[in-house]
Amino acid sequence: MSLTDVTTLSNGVKMPWVGLGVYKMDSGEEVVNAVRSALDLGYRHLDTASFYDNEEGVGQAIKESGIPREELFITTKVWNDEQGYEETLEAFDRSREKLGVDYLDLYLIHWPIQGRYKDTWKALEKLYKDGKVKAIGVSNFLTHHLDDLLKDAEIKPMVNQVELHPELYQKEMIDYCKQQDIQVEAWSPIGRGNYLDNPVLQELAEEYNKTPAQIILRWDLQHGIVTIPKSTHKERQQENADLFDFELTDNEVEKINGLNKNNRLGPHPDEIGK
């Protein structure tokens, strides 16, 4: 496996297993340099959102890279106050323009805003049917949100991007998405570095001559989860990509599963927008 290895979504679209997340990167030089160095290292999957306010910087780095558009996998998301049918179509055009691309590879609903996400989904279905986006999905949806969405959806979400790390191992969600053929993607996969000193992770890192962060990212991959660690530093980006020369045993994967505390770093999806 390598950075260019892909999973195949339910509609046949290929999505790289590892990408670069750019949350909280400034739109100027910081994000431009981060995306540039990631692309230099071989990353081809970039994840942003209108809420991050750095789509223009991501677009600038893409343009300057000279990498053919079809080699890249670009994701962005519709924010909470942009939800609704017409609003989402307009938000999509804004994002596409800022990124400087003709189409998106993946467009996501950022959070399940009650009373709005179904209309938002109808807009995503239209964008998909019109060929403006290769795949559509959701972010931060729990199983009950997905159940509700699927009652009326014509097209099933292809991806659910959720907060997922060893202290928030959402097993029920992962199982549900596997049954529905929805690809799970992890945001904040390293748990913002909050518990890299955990003895289980430290021990495995020593055994494999890796870092605790690499152990976590490898754990994601072995669960069949797409992972998008954020880093502005080239050395760290390289480290986050160096995951393909070792494999955890089933027993070791179970040990990491056992670190779960249902500990969220971000908001609870049922509380957002209230």
From TrEMBL:
InterPro entries, per the entry: AKR, AKR5G, Aldo/ket_reductase_CS, NAD(P)_OxRdtase_dom_sf, NADP_OxRdtase_dom
Ranges of residues in domain NADP-dependent oxidoreductase: 28-260
Keyword NADP: yes
Pfam families the UniProt entry points to: Aldo_ket_red
Keywords per UniProt: NADP, Oxidoreductase
Superkingdom classification of source: Bacteria
Family indicated by similarity: Belongs to the aldo/keto reductase family.
Protein name: Aldo/keto reductase
Organism this protein belongs to: Halobacillus shinanisalinarum
